[in-house]
Amino acid sequence: MIITYFVPCREGGTPTDIPIIKALNGWIKEELFLDFGLAEAGDVPALLDRYVHFFNYHPPAAALGYKSPVQYKTEQGYDFAFLVSTFP
């Protein structure tokens, strides 16, 4: 599985880095529990794969001009042909 989010942190971190990372982790956990049924999941690695695929291909992001991350990166010239998706 490829984790596709990145929060820049300076060496050793700074007081402003920690809240950003905590907020992002809380947001991901909330989506996993509420939208993806993490509490009832029998196969957590497969659930995480589905979440990463959803995050990269489906939700349009305002910061990316209302495009999915993959759509935005593809338009920027990145080639995602090496990624094989098993999800529709």
Can you describe this structure?
By secondary structure, the protein is an all-alpha fold. The protein is built from three helices and no strands. The longest helix has 18 residues, at 17-34. The model has no long low-confidence stretch (mean pLDDT 78). 0% of the residues are buried. The chain starts with 16 loop residues before the first helix and ends in a 13-residue tail after the last helix.
Topology (SSEs and partners):
Elements lengths: L16 H18 L9 H14 L11 H7 L13
Count of individual helical segments: 3
Helix content: 40-55%
- What would you call the shape? globular
Beta content comes to under 5%
Largest sheet: none
What oligomerization state is this entry in? single chain
In sequence order, what are the helices and strands, one letter per element? Answer: HHH
Cα-based radius of gyration, to the nearest Å: 15 Å
Q: What ranges have pLDDT less than 50 throughout 5 or more consecutive residues?
A: none
Number of extended strands: 0
Give the averaged pLDDT, no decimals: 78
Structural class: mainly alpha
Distance between the termini: 17 Å
In short:
The protein is mostly helical and 88 residues long.
Descriptors for this entry?
3 helices, 88 residues, mainly alpha
